[in-house]
Amino acid sequence: MNSPLFVSLLRLIGAQVCVHACMTGIRMAAPLMALREGYGAVAVGVLLALFALSQVFLALPAGRYAERHGLHRPMRLAAAVATPGALLAVVWPVFGVLCVTALTCGAAACVAMIALQRHVGLMANGPSELRQVFSWLALGPSVSSFLGPLLAGMLIDASGFRAAYLLMALLPPLALWWMRPVAELPGHGQPAGDRRRSSWDLLRGKSFRDLMLLNWMMASCWDVHTFLVPVIGHERSLSATVIGTILGAFALAATAIRLLMPWVAARLREATVIGAAMLATAILFGLYPLASGPWLMGLLSVLLGFALGSVQPMIMSTLHQITPRERHGEALGMRSMAINGSSVVMPLLFGSVGAVVGVGAVFWCVGAVVGLGSRLAWRLPHATTEPSPVTAPPQNGGGDA
Asked: Pick from 236, 325, 316: which is nearest to 274 by CA?
């Protein structure tokens, strides 16, 4: 990887950290505030689901918007949505306003993430460099998932929830300042016939469908961990700092494993990495409810971070190789829509099931599904540098599939 590319990549990672940390910090603080105000697990599930609800509807439009306008305009839009949304929680920190904040911060994170991922995919040359740049870019959410909850937890214990929300509101403008020197890349604009082409025809490719299903399973595991750790911590009277540290340890482990992913990717095919991660996740989910104290929870959180953190670079690299270059934005939008649709439904399900049979049952059920689903990962074909014929634009000039 040449030096100018690496410098630009570092700036994009920093911008990603700022926008995403705004969401992850509030995503930890808002449910904890709701719990302390006397709301139950179902209400917390609703609140967490709202972080993903706007992303379900915005993902495909955000992908097309990035294809038309490139990088900087979507990032400015994300900051213009996230900062006022977070400031609302500073002024009126009540449950109803927190729901609005969840919607705005989730929407901003979606727009920014898709624009950044598309831009980085265009920066890379060839499969090897794709794995490298996405392994580096994957560090961004890991770092922000560590810094956001940790900083929010420390500020909550020191100065209260308003201070935590205020700090989160300052992060998106910082992202815009940091990424100013990054130049736009050629290649955005509406391809011929795109107005008549449906994004759903991407699902005609079996490899793309399988990849989306695998991504959904692993994303659900992130949702389980993010949702249930604050609930378990509250039940066991852990402080906000301890809960934030447990979540931060998970993110730090995901960051550490992603530092090794370029080396791993050169030696193992994507299917091997994804399949092994799914089996490890199933085992760890079986053990998690049995953890008796914060230190053991922290250890399992670290191991789970290693497993889940290894998956995204492999999925992103494969996605960019099996879809046409001019449809990367749409493919990223569909991926985001699928996993965030799950994030809307699954916390509601987790809260309902957890309230009836306990949080341990949720861990065990999700672990069983992921363990069984690992068979699909082992059958994932080698990614190629050419788009799959069934995911290429229709030969009749476009038309809904």
From this structure: 316
